[in-house]
Amino acid sequence: MLIKCFLKSVQTFALCAVLMLFSTAARTQGAVSFLKANTVEATSEKAMPAAGNELAFDFTRNMIFFEARVNGKQGSFILDTGAPTLLLNNRGAAVGNPAPTGVAAGGIVDLSNQRIESFEMGGRNTGKHWAIAMDLRGMEQRMGKTIDGFVGHKILRDGEVRIDFPDRKFQLVESSRKPRHEGRAPVTAVKFEYIDHLPVILLRVGKKKLRFAIDTGAGTNLIDKRLSKIFTPTGSEMNVQGLDGDNKNHQIVTISDLQLAGEAQPETTFVAMDLSHLQSPGERAISGILGSVFLTDYVVGIDYKRRKINLW
After folding, report:
1. Is 126 left (phi over 0), alpha (psi -120 to 50) or beta?
2. Which ranges of the chain have pLDDT less than 70?
C-alpha cells in the first residue's frame, strides 16, 4: 500500500549493457546485463534538469564511468542510454521493497524497488526518486571496477545528453531546434523512434532497412543471429555471461556495407546472438544494438525531447 501512494505507472523496460572484458587471438569474453523488469514512477518524480555541468568520464572497456551521488554519497556510475531508469547496486543487501523478479539473458534475477532521497550529477539533483536495485557484484568482479549503478532514460529524458567521446566528457544540455557544439552545426542528424525506452534508428545494409537501438551501456555492437545473410563470420567467438551467471559462446561477425544517414560506414564488428529478449509485443523488431564502440569517433548528442541524434 505504501508504494501505491507514490505510484503513477508501472512500465516494463529492457536494460542491456554489454561489457567487453578482454580478448585473445580466437575468443573474447564479455557479459550481457540485459534485464527486463517493472519500474515504479511517482506522480511527483522528475527527470534530471535539462542543463547541467560538464562531467569527465573514464572510458573503460567501452563503458562510460563517471562520479555521481546517491543520498549524498559519492559513487561510480555508468551512463547507459539503454537503461530504463536508475539501477543501483545493492551488493546483496536487503534494501527497499521486493519487486517482481527480472528476466536476464539466461534466467531469473532478484530485484527490489528502492526509494532514494536524492540523485546528483553535473550539479543537478533529481530529488526523491524511485530506482531499481540488484546485486551487481559479479559485474564488478568481471570489470575490475566499482559499479554503484547505471544511469538511464528516466534521468536523462527531459533534454539532450551530449557525449564528447574524443575529450572524454559529457553534459546534460537543453533541447534545441538548432543545436551547436563549439559553434558548429551537427555533421549528421538522425531521427529516432522509441521502442519502449530505447532510442532506435534506421540503418541500411544494402537495400535492407534495419532498426538498431543506441545503447551507450553496450561495450560492443550486437546483431540478431537470424540475420545471417547480411554478416560474415570472422571465425572468432565471444563468451558472454549474463547477470544470472549463465554464459555461452557467440560468433563475432562483420558487416561491410552498413549505411547511416546515407553515409557508408567502415566495416563494422558485431556479436551475433539471440535478441528475442529485446522485442516488445506490437512493436517493430529491433535488429541489433549499436554500443559506445560505434560512436567513439564523434561528439554525440541524444536529444530525447526532439527524438534526434546529432553527430559532430
Report:
1. alpha
2. 1-51, 96-109, 241-246
Q: What is the dihedral of CA 18, 19, 24, 27, to 10 degrees?
A: -30
> What confidence score (pLDDT) does residue 29 get?
52
* CATH code that applies to domain 177-311: 2.40.70.10
Instruction: Kindly state the helix (H) or strand (E) to which residue 153 belongs, with its residue range.
Output: helix 153-156
Q: Tell me 196's DSSP state.
A: T
Per the rule left: phi > 0, alpha: psi between -120 and 50, beta: everything else, 110 is beta
Closest CA to 261 of 185, 180, 189, 184: 189
pTM for this predicted structure: 0.84
Tens digit of pLDDT for each residue in 22-48?
233 344 555 444 455 555 555 445 555
Neighbouring CB atoms inside 10 A of 204's CB total: 16
Residue 265 grid coordinates: 560506414
CA atoms of 124 and 307, how far apart (whole Å): 23
pLDDT at residue 35, as a whole number: 55
**CA gap 165, 57 in Å, rounded:** 9
pLDDT given at position 14:
36
Edge to edge, the sheet with strand 108-109 lists 7-15, 35-42, 102-104, 108-109
CB 241 within 8 A of CB 107: no
- Please name the fold of domain 29-38+53-171: Cathepsin D, subunit A; domain 1 (2.40.70)
Common-topology check for domains 29-38+53-171 and 177-311:
yes
Element (H, E) at 98: strand 97-98
What gap in Å lies between CA 182 and CA 164, rounded to an integer? 11
